[in-house]
Amino acid sequence: MKTLQSISKQSDTTMNKYLVLVLSLLGCLVFTQAKAQAVPADSLSLDQAIDNVLQNQPSLDQIKAEVDAAQAQVQEAHAGYYPQVDANADYSHIDPVPSFTFANGGSVDIAPYNNYNFNVSIAQQIYDFGRTKSNIELAQSKMLTTKDRSQVVKWTLSYYTAHIFNSILFLEHSMEVEDEQISTLKHDLDLVKKRQESGAATNYDLLTTKVQIATEQNRKTDLENEREQQIINLRKLMGWDQSRPVSIKGDLVLKDSTLENVLPPVDLKNRPDYQLLQDKKDFFQQQYQLARTIEKPSLNAMASAGFKDGYPKDLNRLYGNWVLGVNLKVPLFSGYRSRYQQQAAKANLRSVTAQENDLQRNIQSQVASASSDFESAKKKLNTANLQIEQAREQIKLARLRYENGVITSQDLLDSETKLAQARLQRLNYIYKMIMSRYDLDKALGKQIW
């Protein structure tokens, strides 16, 4: 009986140990999960955001695959310089076979019924007047065009990301201004309530203040929605799940508030899209050169060695044999294919030249527009700074007058609203200056990734 009790106690002790272990593990898992949920979103700088966008962009992956395909086409074009080796096996049955019949009634076959031919043949191009070279240069030009297209995509995406990133910063700073304005209005509401209790303010004053608070809260809600829309776009660009939290770090500060030159000189070579046009021009030039080789002759050598039957000594026996030869091919008429391909290449070259001229005009317009926007926002920023200073002084006077019963609560609210509006305008002008500077850098072809 004691033995059974002892065994039962040991069993209970073991079960309790397992239970404690399981509960401890569950507790660790719950704690780890709660801690993971409590971890704030990673703060992204502009450089990190651009990095994420370029690393997780399907369009760049597509171009990379196209570059690999273009490289393979370059190697394929080189195949024209290498010999072509084939193994051949032929069989044919002839009935009746050709034969000679003699006057005495006899006959001699000059071919077997079953014909066999086994050989290995080699064909080598000797000279094709630049056709293979033109094919190689055309393939290389296509590969370079594809590579430079990826630079255009990176250039466009990086500036688009910068635009979204600074838009988020602008909206967050605007929300901070709204928070401060709402806090100030709530303080005014408390002041109106006290004055109402003493009979110095009416219910209308109280209602007006509440309406003003609700109005500012609605504006903040709109800003929050705009910010969320920009974050959705940023997540999409970076390839992040839409449920993943996003936090950015940085400040809406213009590092350089001056322009060295209102219309700085433009070096077209810095523009990726201009370089892409040069690649297209080179591609069509190579097409033109290739079209000119269509009517050029080609000289080839061939050799073959193997076994075949049908020799007069023994028609049915396989004999070793070999063949050497040279082939000269001179095109006499190709249906004007060369002429029309040359015409098409020339037309495409004219098209690219027109695109170059159009791009030059657009760049000059972009530089002038960005410079004008920058200077305009800069002048307005100076005015906004003065308006903020004036609004702050006006608020001091308005609060003093309101406490003395000289002005109404509406006058006080108006003065505080003017300060908030001036601060928001100041943020808006700083944001416009920053974006104008990015527009100018983009027009000049500067790289920010």
Question: How does this model look, in words?
Answer:
The chain is α+β, with helices and mostly antiparallel strands and 449 residues long. It has a single domain, classed as Outer membrane efflux proteins (OEP) (Up-down Bundle), CATH 1.20.1600.10. It has helices spanning 2-38, 46-55, 58-78, 131-197, 203-238, 272-292, 337-403, 409-443, and strands at 43-44, 84-93, 99-101, 107-109, 114-127, 247-248, 298-308, 319-329. The chain has a 4-stranded antiparallel beta sheet, with no helix packed on it. Strand 3 (99-101) and strand 4 (107-109) form a beta hairpin. The longest helix is centred in the middle third of the chain and has 67 residues, at 131-197.
- Alpha carbon gap, first and last residue: 82 Å
Number of separate domains? 1
Low-confidence stretches: 1-11, 17-40
Binned, the helix content reads 55-70%
Order of helices and strands: HEHHEEEEHHEHEEHH
How much is the average pLDDT? 87
Which structural class best describes the helix and strand composition? alpha+beta
The top level CATH class name:
Mainly Alpha
Q: Predict the CATH topology.
A: Outer membrane efflux proteins (OEP)
Give the number of DSSP strands. Answer: 8
Adjacency order of strands in the biggest sheet: 2-5-7-8
Report the portion of residues in β strands: 5-15%
| Estimated radius of gyration | 42 Å
Number of helices: 8
